[in-house]
Amino acid sequence: MKEQITKEQLVKVAYLARLKLSEEEALQLKDDLNKVLNYVEQLNELNVEEVEPVSHVFEIETPFREDEAVYIENTEKYLENIPDRSGRYIRVPLIVDYEE
């Protein structure tokens, strides 16, 4: 199997994605990604010049429903199980740190 992703590249991508990987997880992920890339390389070698492009075998329409505003009488009933809130607002932990 041809190695297309090095451990250093994987560590950099994991850092950018804010993933914390153990040594074992990093090696397994590197092997898995290399298998995927090698498979894609095999697919790229196929001759598909005479193959018609297909987007869907059957015509599919995605059903949409109309948005409807619904009045909820007892909102407190739904908010009482929220661990951290301020009045009717739900507080959530900071996900993105803008200082980096």
Which properties best describe this structure?
100 residues; mainly alpha; Histone, subunit A; 3 helices; 2 strands; 4% strand; flat
Describe this structure in words.
- With 100 residues, the chain is mostly helical.
- It has a domain at 7-44: Histone, subunit A, CATH 1.10.20.
- The chain has helices spanning 7-16, 23-44, 75-79; strands spanning 85-86, 89-90.
- The chain starts with 6 loop residues before the first helix and ends in a 10-residue tail after the last strand.
The structural class is mainly alpha
**Number of helical stretches of at least 4 residues:** 3
Low-confidence stretches: none
Strand residue percentage: under 5%
Helix content: 25-40%
**Roughly how many Å is the radius of gyration?**
24 Å
> What is the CATH class of the domain at 7-44?
Mainly Alpha
Level-2 CATH architecture of the domain at 7-44 = Orthogonal Bundle
Brief overview:
The chain is mostly helical. The chain has 3 helices and 2 strands; from the N terminus they run H-H-H-E-E.
